[in-house]
Amino acid sequence: MTTTPALLQVGNLKTEFRTDQGTVTAVDEVSFRLAAGETLCLVGESGSGKSVTALSIMGLLADNGRVAHGSILFEDQDLVTLPERQLRGIRGNSIAMIFQEPMTSLNPVLTIGDQLSETVILHLGLSRAQARERVIELLAKVGIPRPEEIVDDYPHRLSGGMRQRAMIAMALSCAPKLIIADEPTTALDVTIQAQILKLIRDLSAETGTAMILITHDLGVVAEMADRVAVMYAGQVVEEADVFTLFDEPKHPYTIALMRSVPHISTPAGDRLASISGSVPSLLQMPTGCRFHERCPHAMDRCRDDRPELLQLSGQNRHTVRCWLYDDAAQPGTTDAKVLA
Amino acid sequence: MTTTEPLLQVRNLKKYYPIRKGVIARTVGQVRAVDDVSFDVHPGETLGIVGESGCGKSTTGRAILRLETPTAGSVIFEGTDIATLSAGTMRRRRTDLQMVFQDPYSSLNPQIRIGDLLAEPLIAHHRLKRAAAQARAAEIIQVVGLPRLYLNRYPHELSGGQRQRVGIARALMLEPKLIVCDEPVSALDVSIQAQVLNLLKDLQGEFGLTYVFISHGLGAIKYISDRIVVMYLGKVMEVATTQEIFTAPRHPYTEILLDAYPEANPHLRDRPRIIVEGDVPSPAKPPAGCVFHTRCPSAQAICTTEIPRLSTDAHPVACHFPLLASKNGKVES
Amino acid sequence: MGSYLIRRLLIGIPVLIGVTLINFLIINLAPGSPADLYLTPTSTSADVVRVEAELGLDQPIFVQYFHWLVRLFHGDLGVSFQNRAPVTELLAERLGPTLLLMGTSLVVAYLIAVPIGILAARKKNSPTDYTVVGAAFLGISVPHFFLGLVLIYVFALELGWLPTGNMITLGRGGGFADRVNHLILPVAVLATATAANMTRYVRSSMIDAFGQDYIRTAKAKGLGLSTITNKHALRNALIPVVTVIGIDLSALIGGAIVTEQIFQWPGIGLLTIQSIGARDYSVLMGINLIAAVAVFGANLLTDIAYAVVDPRVAYA
Predict the structure, then answer these.
(1) Of the residues C47, C73, C99, which one is the last residue of a structural domain?
(2) Domain range for C285
(3) Which CDD domains does this one have (chain C) (predicted)?
(4) pTM of the model
(5) Are residues C42 and C114 in the same domain?
(6) Which residues contact residue C40 at a Cβ distance below 8 angstroms, ignoring those fewer than 6 apart?
(7) Any domain includes C85
(8) Is residue C81 part of a domain?
């Protein structure tokens, strides 16, 4: 297996939320690792737990949420047990985050300059004047025109694309080792999305920043990812490098998801493949494999036994959570061993 | 092109919203949401309208149904200009024209059971008895793939995909000839989008429906449309068959839109393509000349001064320098 | 912004005319006549007619209103029926004490409400929060007159710490400390309801602000709780709070009338009660005009404040 040391290693992460209907598990036994400079896409539909995974890493879960068990090793520190004070020193500094809604994620009553300088003043100890210089530099770097004017503007004066550029500048400001981007282009128009994706790609190549990119869009995954983890109902169901995943998807959910996406550069088929039914509710998780109710290949075993993430034999770090590959898998491999 | 009489003809449609300012709130400008848009919709076809936010596609759709009163132009449905009909006549006409909305969460009244929600238009428009209307609702709900017992449920008890099925069922109740679908799958998960798109296609075959399908999603547009109108800043850029739009676009904007689309194929990630700079200008201050010239890679001097007219050939395009069919070498996989 | 303000001021003129006209009609519809004041047991009905003619009350209501309006444009609010003093002088004399009372109450109320509202929001659904919400509910529910009498009973009569009423101790000139002593109880009464109301606004709008995406962004930057609260949340939370200041001020005027009466505070409120009793139409009209202008001005100020705290608001 790979010898590059992991920058981030998430092991058996389980995140729960207390609700009026009881405790729900939004993320269940999620494990993955990320090497420095690598881009990992977490892809899944709503309710798959991809955003909760990100918020668990950042320690930004809502008040009713908590990491029930598991570990999040970032540069050999476990973020799960790290005191809040030290976590604050990491947030915005060595791990930064970009959110989905550029319209609401910036504070409407503070200027762009105010909001961007906060991190460099806090983490890098710059003076106000130095911070302002740095912010103008960053704004120019993310392709915002007239940065020395925009720095004093309020967010509402900027278009959605420009605001997302400002968010990216904010994330980059302390030269983080890891950026977590949660659906960074979902709210944007397609031509603006192309600009922003290109910007993120160029910047991460230039700075060598590792990235976790969360998206529901397989097109974005195909453009951005080095590795991909497909999530369904709070679990990773398949993980592989991006080419392997698209060329040889193994999990029935991954396969179905790929077939349900319309392509524009190939002639259209007559019908899109669709997945019957809908994503199960967190309150009523199916027993066994969580996908079995919608799976065309479901066997008796799938209803009762919960599949583990299996390492496929002969494949470099291609894991799948499905009983169909039980024989193909190396015997006795479990999550922990896959990650070791 | 079809030779049949168009079901719907949109001619020089304009919808301007005034911008008011000053002590007496006089009109100082206009937002040109839709500016001189013309196209035909033939019976039984799906016409896709694609474009980014602010291009006027939704306003066009709403104007077709007279949910917006056009500033100018006509919307001729089966020979009648419905843009100028009286409110009462329009109300009767509306049974032929229905709409499916984007947001299945907010377009269904949360206080009303699905059954009543579906029966309501039949009672209002056809003065059907409640029982007869309910019976019809029971038929239609099965047509859109939901079990009958859902008639007794409330909208919040349904998932997003199921709610959109209800939205479609409601549009079908009055047996319309034309359905305007405004971003009907944009709020849904990928796997559910496919279900709803397939359903729309099946219903079209079954009931001989005509669709105007409005979306910013190129994938969905390509899958469902026979012909496509590409809009930008309130204007039509290009009208062509789906095949032509995706293999031989003639407007530079169309090509850029296709290039921007992230294909779900990692082997295509380094394909040669143009990523256009800059933002869409505000429709309150559209650029002079061709509205796309500020972002167009092939813009010349004339584009900044003269508005290009939509050509009248078989593949209409509004561009001074349309792309040559041969130039296009889209990567096939 | 400039043209917006001019437009608002121009709209204000017909509004004020409308409000004063309605007031004029209502006052005149009330039974009884100011002429009653001038009557003695020996007066005849001819005397009544004479007094009414003297006061201009024999003319049709609309003519009377028109005369009032014309005089208003000359800066003349007429003469008090009661003591023949010009209304403008009476009001000028009473305005100061009322402004002192209301202004102090408003400041005290905000100084209490903002920190407590923030505290409750930060500790949402905790015992602290429930205590604050409960106390605020109590503060809104208790009537001014009741709270005023309780305070007088406890602090003035039983404990003897504070005076029962008035603005200064008669015959002792009224130094600063004396005035403050007299202010405490009426301010406590007026500030209670305002603070209670405002606490609820601050709390709910802080809770709303804490739930916003930009707060999550601020946390993701590694900012501490106090920076997030004071810089990111509070400034946004103040936007809806500012809008209720105008409403608050109207409620405060109503409260001041009762409070001044209880504490014999020599302000506009006390004058109102006295003038109603005396059917002193011209004074009442002057008071109504001041109240209407105050409410109108408060709303205008609210709108301006709105533009100041929220950079997205630009009036055109």
Answers:
(1) C73
(2) 90-309
(3) TM_PBP2
(4) 0.84
(5) no
(6) none
(7) no
(8) no
Asked whether residue C255 falls in the same domain as residue C175, the answer is: yes
Each residue of A253-301: pLDDT tens digit? 999 999 888 888 777 666 788 888 878 888 888 888 999 988 988 888 8
Say yes or no: B161 contacts chain A, CB-CB below 8 A: yes
- Residue B256: closest CA among chain A residues belongs to which residue? A191
Residue C80 is assigned to a structural domain of this protein: no
B270 touches chain A (CB under 8 A): no
- If one counts the domains in chain C, the total is 2
- My answer on whether C147 and C237 are in the same domain is yes
Q: Check which CATH number belongs to the domain holding C156 and give it.
A: 1.10.3720.10
Q: In angstroms, rounded to a whole number, what is the distance separating the alpha carbons of residues A335 and A310?
A: 7
Which chains would you list as touching B if contact means 3+ CB atom pairs under 8 Å?
Answer: A, C
Chain C residues touching residue A170 (CB < 8 angstroms):
217, 221
In a shared domain, residues C178 and C253: yes
Domains (ranges, CATH) in chain B? Answer: 8-327 (3.40.50.300)
Helix A252-259, helix B190-207: angle, nearest 10:
50
Tell me the chain C residues in contact with residue B22 when contact means C-beta distances shorter than 8 Å. Answer: 3, 7, 316
**Contact yes or no for C235 and A119 at CB 8 A:** no
**Is there a contact between A108 and C220 if contact means CB atoms under 8 Å apart?**
no
Is residue C78 assigned to a domain? Answer: no
Same domain assignment for residues C33 and C65? yes
Hey, what are C224's tokens?
Answer: 């501490």
Closest CB to A268: pick one of B161, B223, B267: B223
What pLDDT shows up at residue C314?
Answer: 72
Q: Is C224's CB within 8 Å of A92's CB?
A: no
User: Looking at chain C, which subunits does it touch, using at least 3 CB pairs closer than 8 Å as the criterion?
Assistant: A, B
3-state SS assignment for residue A307: coil
**Residue listed under structure tokens 């000349």:** B289
Asked if A272 lies within 8 A of B197 by C-beta distance, the reply is yes
Domains parsed from chain A with CATH numbers:
6-94+174-273 (3.40.50.300), 107-172 (no CATH)
Does residue A333 have a pLDDT over 50? no
Residues of chain B with confidence (pLDDT) below 50: 1-2, 326-333
CA B14 centroid distance within chain: 16
**B31 vs chain C: nearest CA distance in angstroms?**
16
Mean pLDDT of A32-60: 92
